[in-house]
Amino acid sequence: MTVVPASAEPRPDSGGAAVPRHVAIIMDGNGRWAKARGLPRAAGHKAGAEAARKVLRAAGEAGVECLTLYAFSSENWRRPETEINDLKGLLRFYIQSELDALHKEGIRLKIIGDHSAFGPELCKMVDHAVSRTAANTRMTLAIALNYGSRVELVNAARNLAEKVASGDLDPADIDEAKLDEALDTRELPPLDLLIRTSGECRLSNFLLWQAAYAELLFVETLWPDFGGNELRAALAEFAARERRYGGL
Ligand code: FPP
To answer: Which pLDDT score, from 0 to 100, does residue 15 have?
Structure first.
């Protein structure tokens, strides 16, 4: 028996090409984009948030069900406090300015990672945006906040161990599906395409389990220069690839 996620089906409006159900992006290169223009790093992040807006729109138009954006990793706390504050401010601004539009367009917001570390005020704002959009079904925007894949896997292991300890789970019943259900991504479709911008070729602790069968695409474009055309080119590259899931 093969266990292959039923993913990347041709969408009615895709001309028959396989459209990934779930695209995740490591949005890299904001700092270099700003530096090349003699601007502060914060200007690069602001332009990056604008790119996120464009890419979300293009992904929705192409029929992508879920877009996951790596906005803040659990390693980003190593950055200077001023930059961390800039990123928090940008997230606050993004949610304030985008929430109505997201909701009107039928987009459900999900968070992966532990956003409680951003403090009660921002945390409340994020929770409000998540609950307000929870019933939307057209598309999902998942934002990774204070996210790290290894911590996510450790938490999942602890969660399963607690169920075993309380007698609610037989260790013999632990399988891939059980682990999947214990991850932050449990309500998201299987990951089909993972893109990293700015020429870096690393996963940087992002969706390590989920990327097992995803197509990986590393592009030179710096994130603030990535827009609808670049996303459509990435989707075309995905459609041209042959996915075999270990088969022939
Ligand atoms: C990596 O560029 C980017 C980040 C650490 C932050 C990503 C955040 C945004 C694009 C803005 C917020 C987005 C949303 C959806 C609210 P870098 O600073 O590491 O760039 P560098 O490698 O060129 O220095």
So the answer is: 60
